[in-house]
């Protein structure tokens, strides 16, 4: 009556109570699960916030919420965004491969994450120089991919349409400075230095 099977331990004790485990022990058990490449354990890993995204281990993410650290899109994220796996153990190639199978984003970001990154610029314009280039490049690639698919299906995805509508109204684009000796009024003169505008507000 005091024994517990391997399956019951992870199903009934560990994963439902993962936030109560001491971080070092928790990580050892999660790494064990990743290394087994078991369909049963993967089923438990996928919906659980179990992957640390900071050195202290206080912020956990589900595999599908993670961004592959080698993905160029990872350049748009800062440590405090808590979207990239942290630590050598969790970023070992074989474990990243398992996380990818469990939904970690690699080549592309979902449209909802693209919108979220645009909003992050609106909230923190000081990071514009580090992020905007990658964001615009990603949007361009995603739109071209959607257009290629639309040639086969006859329409772009609903996700893209919703993202496009939202992106048009997010203040994420820098304002071109007034050229030297330009004799007329310049739009940037109406705003504080470093201000961003939405695509619908620009020309």
Indicate the radius of gyration in whole angstroms. 22 Å
Strand order of the largest sheet: 1-2
The oligomeric state is single chain
| Strand coverage percent | under 5%
Helical content (DSSP H or I, runs of 4+): 40-55%
Cα distance spanning the termini: 73 Å
Give the overall form: elongated
Strand-pairing-aware structural class: mainly alpha
* Mean pLDDT reading: 90
Q: What's the helix-strand series? A: HHHEEHHHHEE
- Low-confidence spans: pLDDT under 50, at least 5 residues? none
With helices defined by DSSP (H or I, 4 residues minimum), what is the helix count? 7
Main sheet, how many strands, which sense, barrel? 2 strands, antiparallel
- Structure summary, number of beta strands: 4
């Amino acid at each position: 009556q005091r024994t517990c099977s391997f399956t019951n331990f992870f199903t009934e004790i560990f994963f439902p109570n993962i936030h109560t485990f001491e971080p070092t022990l928790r990580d050892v058990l999660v790494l064990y699960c990743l290394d087994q490449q078991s369909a049963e354990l993967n089923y438990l890993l996928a919906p659980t916030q179990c992957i640390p995204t900071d050195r202290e281990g206080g912020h956990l993410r589900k595999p599908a919420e993670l961004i592959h650290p080698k993905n160029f899109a990872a350049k748009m994220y800062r440590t405090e965004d808590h979207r990239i796996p942290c630590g050598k153990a969790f970023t070992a190639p074989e474990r990243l491969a398992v996380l990818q199978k469990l939904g970690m984003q690699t080549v592309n970001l979902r449209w909802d994450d693209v919108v979220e990154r645009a909003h992050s610029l609106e909230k923190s314009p000081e990071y514009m120089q580090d992020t905007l280039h990658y964001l615009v490049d990603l949007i361009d690639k995603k739109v071209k991919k959607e257009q290629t698919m639309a040639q086969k299906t006859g329409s772009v995805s609903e996700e893209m349409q919703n993202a496009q509508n939202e992106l048009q109204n997010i203040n994420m684009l820098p304002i071109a400075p007034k050229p030297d000796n330009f004799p007329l009024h310049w739009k940037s003169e109406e705003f504080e230095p470093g201000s961003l505008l939405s695509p619908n507000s620009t020309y």
